[in-house]
């Protein structure tokens, strides 16, 4: 069966919903452009304004600790850097994230929305140029095999929303767990060449139902019990850049 790219997602603000893309240009050795360009840091996070840096996930608000973030629908305009937040179809906050005042407005909204948690007032922080506030410091892109998600759904005895895994690239047609065989090897996706670096260990963020904003399943535990590990998806490094589009064919590593 032909393996194809079924979706491209980027997450402008770490912890909030992603946006689907039809196509995107990737550069060698870099993350997916615009992915996790901003994040909502704890007020006590050791963030140095104006510096390009990376901090571990524990310093940021995310679905892992704040399931209620799934109640918000975020729309980001890359031309103006304007973030619009909606809740139940109503606009609740709007601000330009490249502007200090805009970041303050968004931060104040989240201070009210999340309430006091002992870690200070939330602050919107921006990644440096050609950087991103992903869960790992390396400039990798995440890839999810929908066939594997379906197999996990079989074990869970329910359909699982692939968005729970917050991956950049979704593929299908490879067969369940085939991506594990690609670690340490290269695949061709259209004009782009990717080196599959390692499996992605999953955390409690995947437990959140993105429709109800409630924890309704323990996926890391289900993975452990069903397969003896907690991995879903793989990290990839762009070896050869180019433009990719939904529907692109993926070629497996040569034997």
Polypeptide structure, described:
This protein has three helices and 18 strands. The chain is mainly β. It folds into two domains: 3-11 and 18-31 and 136-251, M1 Pyruvate Kinase, Domain 3, CATH 2.40.33; 38-126, no CATH class. The strands form five sheets. The protein has a seven-stranded mixed beta barrel with strand order 1-11-10-16-13-12-18. The protein has a three-stranded mixed sheet with strand order 2-5-9, with helices on one face.
Task: Tag the structure with descriptive keywords.
mainly beta, 255 residues, M1 Pyruvate Kinase, Domain 3, 14% helix, 3-stranded mixed β-sheet, 3 helices, 7-stranded mixed barrel, globular
Task: Characterize this entry briefly.
The chain is mainly beta and 255 residues long.
Work out the oligomeric state of the chains in this entry. Answer: single chain
Could you describe the largest sheet, including whether it forms a barrel?
7 strands, mixed, barrel
Low-pLDDT runs of 5+ residues are none
Total number of strands: 18
Backbone shape: globular
Strand order of the largest sheet: 1-11-10-16-13-12-18
Strand content: 25-35%
- What is the second-level CATH architecture of the largest domain? Beta Barrel
Residues in helix, %: 10-25%
What does the average pLDDT come to? Answer: 94
Gap between N and C termini: 17 Å
Query: What is the name of the CATH topology of the largest domain?
Result: M1 Pyruvate Kinase, Domain 3
Query: What letter string, H or E per element, gives the SSE order?
Result: EEEEEEEEHEEHEEEEEHEEE
